[in-house]
Amino acid sequence: MKPFAYLRARSAEEAVREHAAHPGAGFLAGGTNLVDLMKLGVETPALLIDVSRLLLDRVTGTDDGGLRIGATVRNSDLAAHPEVRTRYPALSQALLSGASGQLRNTATTGGNLLQRTRCPYFQDTSKPCNKRDPGTGCPAREGAHRDLAVLGHSEHCVATHPSDMAVALSALDATVRLHGPDGERTVPATGFHRLPGDTPHRDTETLPGELVTEVLLPPPPDGAASLYRKARDRASFAFALVSVAAVLSVRRGRIEHAALAFGGLAHRPWRAHTAEAALRGAPAAPETFEQAVDAELAAARPLRDNAFKVGLARALAVDALAELAADS
Ligand SMILES: Cc1cc2nc3c(=O)[nH]c(=O)nc-3n(C[C@H](O)[C@H](O)[C@H](O)COP(=O)(O)OP(=O)(O)OC[C@H]3O[C@@H](n4cnc5c(N)ncnc54)[C@H](O)[C@@H]3O)c2cc1C
Ligand code: SF4
Known about the structure:
Mean pLDDT: 97
Strand content: 15-25%
Order of helices and strands: EHEHEEEHHHHHHEEEEEEEHHH
Strand order of the largest sheet: 4-5-8-6-7
Bound molecules: flavin-adenine dinucleotide, iron/sulfur cluster
Low-confidence stretches: none
Shape: globular
Structural class: alpha+beta
CATH class of the domain at 225-327: Alpha Beta
Distance between the termini: 53 Å
């Protein structure tokens, strides 16, 4: 590991100020992703600004009946929060499906959102990788890509985003609050992560030195229920091959509200806008769910070894919608 300096920030303002003053600095939260990448030589920050002790570790109600989640709230605490478990079950389930108990006790909301891809070439500094080292190429396209993207990829990168939590936040219409050198702003969770295009080194829409300070959840739509389902190679301690977060409300047999997001399929959580448009106002019936999900997945462009993800995504999403409809 390369030598680095360490600073514990006492406020968000100090963290942002120090980051701006030290090019090459990085924010450290739980360290469960960043420190691993430093050991591998993938990340080499000259200064670590520790934000894990900032007073952003609370989950509180908002005036509109939603929730405000501080960036340093631990994944375990968020998953167990009574309001999250009862009103936003998709979020609690997504968190509990990720990593292990020990990791979730350490990992934070901000760090989870900003975690980096698990593409094996990205993590191996002896290999080229456009995301880690722009312009060097993408060996995954023709190489080991079974776990990688089928939607929205580019010739420059076929990586997937690994966070389960981010998929649930997208379907729940969360927004992310950022504090940067030029002040504060919010970004919808659905637009927070990027598609790779020709700039795969940029995972998100954050600007240099912007700190995630909180995530805001709107109140759930009237009568809506939500869930998260994940398919993976092992029953625990494994990233999603495919996952789905679904939110659904049904009134007199017709779908009033539908939100669907996929994980494991793209460089960002994939919000299924085409499927949602087909679902809204339609009868809550199996054929509606199948047609809507098929319309979304028609855009899939699988690589040589990952076409199985399309069928898996279809099965997970159709089952999730049917389960929510049966319960509503
Ligand atoms: C073995 C293993 C299995 C795992 N399995 C899963 C899984 O199944 N599903 C899943 O979703 N995740 C999984 N993870 C990943 C885990 O969820 C992440 O490592 C964790 O959420 C990162 O949070 P952290 O607080 O430790 O972030 P850190 O490692 O501290 O930081 C991660 C990144 O976020 C940046 N950052 C941190 N906080 C902020 C902030 N407030 N503002 C701006 N930038 C910030 C850091 O600079 C860094 O770039 C797994 C990890 C391991 C090691
Ligand atoms: S898929 Fe992306 S992260 Fe993986 S090798 Fe290609 S450029 Fe790098």
